[in-house]
Amino acid sequence: MFSHTVEYALRAVAALAEDWERPHAVQKIADRTKMPNDYLAKVMQALCRAGVVNAIRGRHGGYQLTQAPSKLTLLMVINAVDPIKRIDRCPLGLPGHGPNLCPLHRRLDDAIRETENAFRYTTLAELLDSTGPVRPLCPVDQPPAFINVAL
Amino acid sequence: MFSHTVEYALRAVAALAEDWERPHAVQKIADRTKMPNDYLAKVMQALCRAGVVNAIRGRHGGYQLTQAPSKLTLLMVINAVDPIKRIDRCPLGLPGHGPNLCPLHRRLDDAIRETENAFRYTTLAELLDSTGPVRPLCPVDQPPAFINVAL
DNA sequence: TTTAAGATGGACAAAAATGTCCGATTCAAA
DNA sequence: TTTGAATCGGACATTTTTGTCCATCTTAAA
């Protein structure tokens, strides 16, 4: 239902959000989130173009969130790499009817709108908020003690 | 968000549902729903294997719903061609934690569950039910009079 | 029995998504 | 000023999805 690219982008920003005021090298992020290094590089470039992250080049550079995790929503991240497309007209493209949708596409678009909203109102900060026992990422070599669930 | 194949499958069964006790040839369905004939043939085979439709071979054959539109849900159709996959374990595959998900994947799976439910509880009959002014399909050459919206 | 309408399914082609490689560029620190 | 760490971005490879073609099998009607 969600593309690999979206998954990758979300894992990456979640990793960045843990320490968001410093740049993190692609390689570090890739290691931590277990994804192909060079593909992540492309994903980060997309996130950069969309203004979700900043690129700091040169030594000790890397990527960094442009805003506090409480300001960034999951929808921003998703739309940066693989925009959620609402259905705003009949996919059959028949002429002669207005902006109304037939029942099928009305249903489909309702579902899309709901998931869009679910992500529009979820910030990265909420994801990381660990008042509960869960954590969004955990290092591989440090097995979790209780419910230290990995991303 | 939804694949072309899903769109096609839904259009096709919506077309079949309008007159579900007779078989309809692939070519007829393809014309009416504006999709590639030969690709639809593959989609119909998948729907057939999944038990959503029956194939009647030979002259005057075609495809036909196996059950009344009120018995068939959108989810059945979707799952027949492109199953909705729930997230039931950490995609990173890290060992050492149970069946719990981290916050990110919990959110993602919540969204998936909601759309799954939206389709589980919508039948084809509901889609066709035209107490309202909308109709799920309309012929191209007959321009709609009021709000006769096309699929 | 012949014929035409129709599904079946294998093979292939095209396009999109995903993944890999590497040289060029940028910048900070030594 | 040199060097090393890092992004940038083009080229290419692989895989999946989507689309096309066609020979074969099946059945009803003529």
Structural key phrases:
mainly alpha, 151 residues, 5% strand, 6 helices, Arc Repressor Mutant, subunit A, elongated, two-stranded antiparallel ribbon, homodimer, DNA-binding
Please, could you describe this protein's structure?
Two copies of one chain form a homodimer. The first copy, chain A, is mostly helical. Chain A is built from six helices and two strands, in the order H-H-H-E-E-H-H-H. Chain A has a two-stranded antiparallel sheet. Chain A has one domain (4-128): Arc Repressor Mutant, subunit A (Orthogonal Bundle), CATH 1.10.10. Mean pLDDT of chain A is 85; it is low at 132-151. In chain A, helix 1 (4-17) packs across helix 2 (26-33), helix 1 (4-17) packs across helix 3 and helix 2 (26-33) crosses helix 3. The radius of gyration of chain A is 18 Å and the shape is elongated. The first copy, chain A, has helices at residues 4-17, 26-33, 37-49, 74-81, 103-120, 124-128, and strands at residues 53-56, 62-65. The structure holds a DNA duplex (30 and 30 nucleotides).
What share of the residues of chain A lie within helices? 40-55%
Q: Structural class, from helix and strand content of chain A?
A: mainly alpha
CATH hierarchy class name of chain A: Mainly Alpha
Largest interface: A-B, 53 and 54 residues
* Terminal Cα span of chain A: 18 Å
Overall tally of domains of chain A: 1
The outline of chain A comes out as elongated
Q: Let me know the average pLDDT of chain A.
A: 85
Q: Predict the CATH topology of chain A.
A: Arc Repressor Mutant, subunit A
- Spell out the helices and strands of chain A N to C: HHHEEHHH
- Please name the CATH architecture of chain A: Orthogonal Bundle
How would a textbook summarize the main sheet of chain A?
2 strands, antiparallel
Report Rg of chain A: 18 Å
Number of helices of chain A: 6
